[in-house]
Structure prediction request, 564 residues.
Amino acid sequence: MKLNLDNRVLQGVDFLQKVGVSIKPEDLAFFVDKNEVLHKKPIEGIKSEVIPTEFGIKMRTVIEPGVKIKYPVALCFGNIQHGGEHINEQELIVGEGADVKIYTFAIIGPGQSLHRKDLVTVRLGKNAKVELYDIHYHDKSADIDFYAELNAYLDEGAYFYNLLKVTDQKSGKFKTKFYGEVGKNASVIVEAKMKATEGDDVVVEDIIKLVGEGARGLSKSRIIALDGAKAEFIGEAHGDAPNSRCHIDCAEVVKGENITLKNIPILVSKNETAKLTHEASIGKIDKKQLETLMAKGLTEDEATEVVVQGMLR
Amino acid sequence: MKDNRLLEVKNLKYSADGKEIIKGVNLDVKEGEIHVILGPNGAGKSTLANLIAGAVGYEEPTEGEIIFDGKLLNGKPIYERAKLGLTIAFQEPARFEGITVEEYLKLSARNNPDANIEECLRKVGLEPCEYLHRYVDESLSGGERKRIELASIMCMKPKLAVLDEIDSGIDFVSIDEIGNLFKTMRDEGTTLLVITHRENIANIADRASLMCDGRIVETGNPKEIIKKFEKECLTCTVQNPEVLKEINLNK
Prediction:
């Protein structure tokens, strides 16, 4: 069946395809250009309410207990024609035992100047499983000031995976803050992959609170900073509960000059059986990696590109 | 076996931090042979391997010449030597986040359109369906990583591969297995210069050289070189305190 979609939806899909996202227009469940809902497809087991506001949308989505969605749900939050002040508020409630994989695409089109806030809350019921992939496409001609906040609350045995990826074109001024409260035997994995180019100012902040016995957490960030970029990572793990475990891992790689990087792991334990660890590094690409690839005939620049693309994948 | 020299190392010297590590090495590697360099820890074997391959910081020897396939290599970076058909498998090959075994082998094979990456994996004892999609990262054991490095060299099919202690830490079932693998590589057209401190690896060689204290002290029949290594090198503690340490540990 041929879909009658707004040109902006097709344009958005085209941007995504150009940056390597394998998606077709019919795969989309939802597309909004700032506060203008252009496409919404019903999905069995998911109830979604969207209220357009002056500066964006308010969206509340409920996934019924036990619902298992076999295919990924793709949502686009774009700024194709509309920029300026933009606020998205989203709440996702996932019922007990539900299982879903969601892709959200943030698409910022050419020439847009915007100040955008994405405020997202995810509540996972007992043994619920959610994978949330947040992939950004920012056109290099856009002027971007972006704040992305994600708060996740995990009930017993729940699993939440989040990947934030801003690796094409430019990041702009971009701050992301993740806060996760992890219940008994629940697990959270939060990953950020960012590329900061000239003039970009990237801040990644992860806070993981292990509040239930046996809770698990992992924060993993990879930031590549090129000439004239700024980047900062703050990773905070709180071991409040017995036998909880968390690892903070951030590698910031520099390539070029006039780069400012910060990398701050913070471990806070309130329980003697909690185990918190971290790895933090700032530096050039490992010489051994370059040399191993150069022994296969790659020049230093080619080898660097291979290593960088691998890290940002 | 052909008699022509693929690699000629002439009076090679290399110093670092005021210390002479390679003290006038002369070495020939003939096309189509497996040539093993045997020697105790600290003899300078890995430094020699790095100088031949042109590893970063080792492109220019202090003195002497390295001639490969008739071309002087002195000063050439590692990737140019690789393009000429000379590569190295390092003692500890690097690991890579986000790069699959398949991609890694394809990178190695980019100048060899005939390479069959699945076949190369099978030859090193790894099943393609289990390994192609895996990442070349910390999830691989040391032995798996070294096997993948050997597969990558098979994919490249260079004229000469320097294997720097590729046998150490590898979980090959027997010496025959690694020997057969080296012979396969040789029979497929890659001359091998194998650096090792394990005398039983030398058994599979066509020729062997004994290295001690920055010099090649003898080149010849592998069995005779092994005898000499066992008789003289393992008990020699004057020039190599590392050996003394090893002997004491073994005791």
About this structure: The helical segments of chain A are 7-18, 287-294, 300-312.
